[in-house]
Amino acid sequence: MKVSVIMVSDNMCKLLRQSLAALKRSVQHLDAEIILVDNNSDDNTVETISREFPDVKITTTTGGLSHCVNQGIKMAKGEYLLFLSPDAITKKETVSKAIQFMDSHITAGGLSVRMLDIDGNYMQASKKTVPRRWVTLLKLTGLLKQFSKSRLTDHYIARHDDEFDTTETDVMHDRFMLIRKSVMDVVGLVDERFNRYGANIDLSYRIRLAGFRNYYFPKTYIINLQYNRSGKFSWNNLKSFYGAMFIFAVKYIFRLPALGEKPAQELYPAYELKG
């Protein structure tokens, strides 16, 4: 099987139906499977998707986003894993073009693609590097040297290259991440301590540590129907954001492998913020 598409839904049935309809067209000529992990939704997601998209493999669970993603990974059989947001619309050749790029770049561990908003405007978050506050933390901990300084220009948004330039990137955005299954076998599952924020940063970082390259691939695109659903300044968001920073720093400052070396797959102690 060429690609396993993994989607996580949490009461997003209406948007998910639109996303799946577009995805089915995008993978119709590929040997593909679609895996939906439903996070205990109460909007009839499972019943609706089972009826309208009988080929979609559905499993249910309860937990954070990273936990749900890992359940999908464990079910996947594809050469590539595509982590796709349930509010993302893929175009007809989006998935095939991304796979063609990966097939022709053997050192590529993963890629993300150009994003447009619902009005067709380019979203600069397509080319994420590291959030500004994370950069400050990485400077203080000495971890910054493990990232490309040229790709930290303007910190959170990489403006140093044109929208349509294919470039390496430190961090793949989490709306569309296409990663080789063999690379995931090397770096391990998504770290479930990163619940709402940081999981894509940590995974992107581990892929680079293992000697592979991450890419921003703009020759195709997705459309985001709904971006940043949760309140940016809510307490839960702030707690998750800064908690992820703390976990990342603790995880790597005490055991920091050099880039190009495959990291030892060890379990780190869990750190959680109370309250």
Automatic annotation (TrEMBL):
Family annotation (Pfam families): Glycos_transf_2
Molecular function per GO: glycosyltransferase activity
SUPFAM superfamilies in the record: Nucleotide-diphospho-sugar transferases
Enzyme class: transferase
Domain Glycosyltransferase 2-like: from-to ranges: 4-127
Transmembrane segments: none
Keywords assigned by UniProt, alphabetized: Glycosyltransferase, Transferase
InterPro entries in the record: Glyco_trans_2-like, Nucleotide-diphossugar_trans
EC number in record: 2.4.-.-
Protein name: Glycosyltransferase
Organism (species): Mucilaginibacter jinjuensis
